[in-house]
Design goal:
The complex is a heterodimer of chains A (331) and B (338).
Chain A (H helix, E strand, L loop, with lengths): L1 H16 L10 E6 L6 H17 L2 E6 L6 H13 L4 E4 L8 H9 L3 E5 L10 E4 L3 H14 L5 E7 L5 H12 L7 E8 L4 H14 L5 E4 L2 H13 L7 E4 L3 H10 L4 E4 L2 H17 L9 E3 L5 E3 L5 E3 L4 E4 L3 H5 L3
Parallel strand pairs in A: 1-2, 1-3, 3-4, 4-5, 5-13, 6-7, 6-8, 8-9
Antiparallel strand pairs in A: 10-14, 11-12
Helix pairs in contact in A: 2-10, 3-4, 5-6, 7-8, 8-9
Chain B lengths: L1 H11 L8 H8 L1 H19 L6 H7 L4 H15 L7 H17 L4 H25 L4 H20 L13 H4 L1 E3 L2 E2 H19 L1 H11 L1 H6 L4 H27 L10 H11 L11 H20 L4 H30 L1
Antiparallel strand pairs in B: 1-2
The chains are: A alpha/beta (331), B mainly alpha (338).
């Protein structure tokens, strides 16, 4: 029957098309599992993973993930990876808990499992790689402002809400290191509630209340963009520098206009690179991921694990006019 | 099991379900065609990946379709009767959220199962009331409840998660009956048999076909059309509740995003199984084979690390091909004749 034959040939041909890659068994296979494919941030992380693989030499990176950011999708991916008996899985999880049974099974079958970026509950992985840590972020936001003010000056904070845990922790950490930056004075802290219009009004208000203001620090991606716009609209570019934490894609305009000299956020390339290095160390060099362990990760230095076997990769990465072009299309 | 149900087919089809015979005759061989595709995919996969022919891997692969197939069986009956339920994935979310909530109040495994199934039934009844009593089109009603049911989950949970399910609850989604045979597989077989008998061996099943082909005619033949449809919505809700029990047990936690997009995979499975999307024809053995086809394709492509997006394209092409082929066949045949 011809329908039958046609259908069969199509199915076989289509499947055969997708089966070309040869299997290089001797390579160490490290799977970089992301929340979903087609997200610039993770594509950049995959680039970093490839860089690490090239440096290590005998590593094959399997960059994979589901279509939607669901736990079920990631479990299907994990099952397929377990079936292939890969050497290591480095995952940015869609769900802290739901992946634990699947990842436990992977570990039982001798696969190294680490999480990065978005973590898995401790029993479902050997270590978790945070892009940065609260003290490092707290220090970075004030350092960014101080670097532009060699003779000291007045800075103000534009935060999210009064109850935002992340922002409050970072500001607290920042206050601890203020002694390292003599001459820098924090004159006010205002809250834009992570709303573009309220953040804009608060930033405008700051410039009116403190005519000598030198910098606005916004440790929130909404606030920093709104503050930069307020500075441009007030005609204070060059007088007030906006800095803090933001996304390159949203901040490219502010860097271009000069409203912001520099800002910081994690670097996905470094993150993918470090995750790959750590996975390799654990699976090939017999490194134990115990609390207090110090694990090398190539050009990114070493990762020190805390009592929850978590570690912070590095300072947030600084973006300015020299690299914004490269990163604005990534995330 | 599939042998006995397959043999049962000719008996139940003595009375033609539809009168446009040529398209119907093509459909008649549907299951055998699909089975050949499944075998072909199995063989191609075995050659394509050295990891495919491993009983444990194949056992893991069944999780890709068992829960979806449970809903697909009920959905098949619903679609044969000319209705559809697009809220099934959202019913899973709501049932799972209800179970998670019950855990916080100390519910044990038996209570959780009852709650999951009951919420599924209630959601099914909710859909049924709007469709059968108020006479609204099911596609519109269930698009509405699709947002409604999941919306309630989001209100209860926000971006939080329920966890702490009792250890014994894990049996449903993570347990094994014997060797590589999972608990989910056992229930898959039981539910497939139950729906196979219901559709192909009972008066109720004949009524479902009759309604799908001609609701007015069915009504004049003394079939209580709305009552049958009401029951079908209840069954679909119940099976969604069952899928929620298995999926929640397998994940060990509940988030409101659970099972997002699953309704389309369920409908795909049903249509791939040879059920006419316009109602009136289809069979349970077809859906069983379609479940295996989809499971084997996604698992095989997963083993080759084909990205999920390419996998969706492949499933989409498979579905379009499957729907278009019989139509093309009829068109070609008509042209040859005329």
């Amino acid at each position: 029957m011809s329908v039958f034959r046609k259908f069969l040939t199509t199915a076989v041909a289509a499947t055969a098309l997708l089966t070309s890659p040869a299997f290089a068994q001797e390579d160490v296979r490290i799977a970089l599992v992301v929340k979903a494919l087609g997200i610039g941030f993770f594509e950049a992380a995959a680039k970093g993973a490839e860089e690490a693989a090239a440096e290590l030499g005998n590593v094959e990176i399997i960059y994979t993930g589901p279509t939607d950011t669901t736990a079920e999708g990631q479990i299907e991916v994990i099952n397929a990876l377990i079936a292939q008996n890969v050497d290591a899985i480095a995952i940015s999880a869609n769900d802290t808990d739901a992946l634990v049974p699947a990842l436990k099974r992977a570990m039982q079958r001798g696969i190294t499992v680490i999480s990065w970026d978005s973590g898995v509950a401790a029993e479902g992985r050997q270590l978790h790689l945070n892009p940065s840590s609260n003290p490092l972020i707290g220090n970075m936001i004030i350092k960014l402002a101080a670097d532009q003010l060699p003779d000291g000056g007045e800075v103000a904070l534009l935060s999210a809400t009064t109850t935002s845990t992340n922002q409050n922790t970072w500001i607290e950490e920042m206050n601890k290191v203020m002694g390292d930056y003599p001459g820098i004075e924090v004159v006010a802290t205002v809250y834009g509630d992570d709303l573009a219009d309220k953040s804009y009004r608060e930033a405008t208000g700051l410039m009116q209340s403190y005519p000598d203001l030198d910098a606005i620090i916004a440790p929130t991606s909404v606030g920093i963009v709104a503050a930069a716009q307020a500075v441009v609209d007030a005609g204070k570019v060059g007088q007030v520098n906006v800095t803090g934490l933001g996304l390159p894609s949203e901040m490219a305009g502010a860097i271009e206009s000069g409203a912001s000299k520099s800002f910081a956020i994690w670097n996905p390339i470094d993150l993918g690179y470090s995750a790959t290095m750590l996975a390799y160390e654990l699976s090939q060099n017999g490194v134990e991921a115990a609390p207090g362990a110090e694990i090398p990760m190539g050009r990114m230095g070493t990762l020190t694990l805390d009592e929850n076997t978590e570690g912070a990769m590095a300072d947030p990465f600084v973006y300015d006019a020299s690299n914004i072009e490269e990163f604005k299309s990534i995330f | 099991m599939s042998d006995s149900t397959l043999q049962a087919r000719p008996e139940t089809r003595h009375v033609p379900d539809r009168l446009n015979s040529r398209a119907f005759r093509t459909l008649r061989s549907w299951e055998s065609l699909l089975l050949a595709v499944a075998i072909a995919i199995f063989i191609v996969n075995s050659f394509a990946s050295p990891y495919f022919l491993n009983v444990w891997n194949l056992s893991d692969a069944t999780f890709n379709f068992t829960e979806k197939a449970m809903i697909a069986f009920a959905m098949a009956l619903l679609i044969i009767s000319g209705e559809i339920d697009l809220s099934v994935a959202s019913i899973i979310a709501l049932a799972s959220t209800a179970m998670g909530l019950a855990v916080q109040y100390g519910a044990g495994t038996p209570e959780l199962v009852v709650i999951g199934l009951a919420v599924g039934l209630l959601c099914g009844a909710f859909n049924a009331v709007f469709v059968t009593i108020m006479g609204l089109p099911s596609i519109v009603v269930t698009i509405g409840t699709m947002s409604l049911f999941r919306g309630i989950s989001y209100i209860i949970l926000g971006d939080d998660a329920f966890r702490g399910y009792p250890a014994s609850f894990a049996w449903f989604g993570q347990g094994y009956i014997y060797w590589v045979f999972t608990v989910e597989m056992l229930f898959f077989v039981i539910i497939a048999l139950a729906f196979g008998v219901l559709l192909h061996k009972t008066n109720f099943g004949r009524a479902v076909y009759a309604i799908g082909n001609n609701p007015t005619g069915a009504m004049f033949s003394g079939i209580r059309v709305q009552k049958v449809k009401f029951i079908l919505f209840l069954l679909t809700g119940l099976m969604s509740g069952a899928a929620a029990v298995f999926l929640t047990s397998r994940l060990g936690s509940t988030r409101p995003s659970i099972a997002t997009g699953m309704e389309l995979e369920v409908v795909t499975m049903v249509v791939l199984g040879g059920v006419n999307i316009l109602g009136g024809s289809g069979s349970i053995p077809g859906v069983v084979i379609a479940a295996f086809v989809m499971g084997l394709v996604t698992f095989g492509l997963g083993l080759l690390n084909v990205p999920g997006i390419v996998m969706s394209i492949f499933i989409g092409l498979l579905l379009i091909g499957v729907i278009a082929l019989p139509r093309l066949w009829t068109m070609a045949a008509n042209r040859r004749r005329g």
